[in-house]
Amino acid sequence: MTFSVLARDPATGDLGIAVSSCILAVGRAVPAARPGVGIVAVQARSRRGLGNALLSGLAAGEAPATLVRRAAHSAEDADRQLAVLDATGRVAADTGPGSFPACGHLVDAGVSVQGNMLASDEVLPAMSQAFGAAGGAFADRLLTALGAGQAAGGDLRGRQSAALLVVGGDPATDEDDGIRTDLRVDDSRDPVAQLRMLRNLQRAYDERDYEHLALFAPEGARDLYAALAASRRGDRDGARRALEELRRRPGWSAWLSAMAGDGRLSAVSRLLD
Question: How confident is the model at residue 140 (pLDDT cuts 50, 70, 90)?
């Protein structure tokens, strides 16, 4: 009922998974991860607590293949499907004998794709090939693989939800929780496309792409990003107009004054002094 890709980025050590399904809120049910430990996909009719058990096994030093083999011998989980990846890139997967056809998994160095109740046998090869050929940021490569799976038919029943989770290869600390990306689309007619839109929005926030945010940020904040974008490109009049529009709204003038020391806002705020 689900298709997913999980992988390790050899350049950064990050671990990630992208998943889609025709169930509500697949991001709540399938992926589980711990920074510096590993990431797992628990699919089909696997026990809901299996993800945490597998991560605990990784944290205790057990190999993914050992954990998968142990789960595969659990008689009550004949409909299970799971994949386990540790922080070093070791990966193992299993599809139980009772999983819903078409189903299966493909494992390569540091990456695994898996799915069940798929529209065709082409879904998993398409995902594997797309991930291997993709360039760019790790999260985008995961989304490229997920998109290829959807384009090949995806879930036989249709589309509802998708999720993207990326964590660091080092353990979390008080300064860094290790979560790089955690995006979910719980109910949508085209969840993979919606997930990509969220990823693009996150990138805009991370990279301070004010031009993008001026169009796609929440409506109440678009004038702020329009001012920042105009200031960056040297359009003083455009920045002034956007700030004047902001200051007409209740509460925003005080907020702008309070943020005067912020390096991003000080230059445009001076336009209204």
Answer: very high
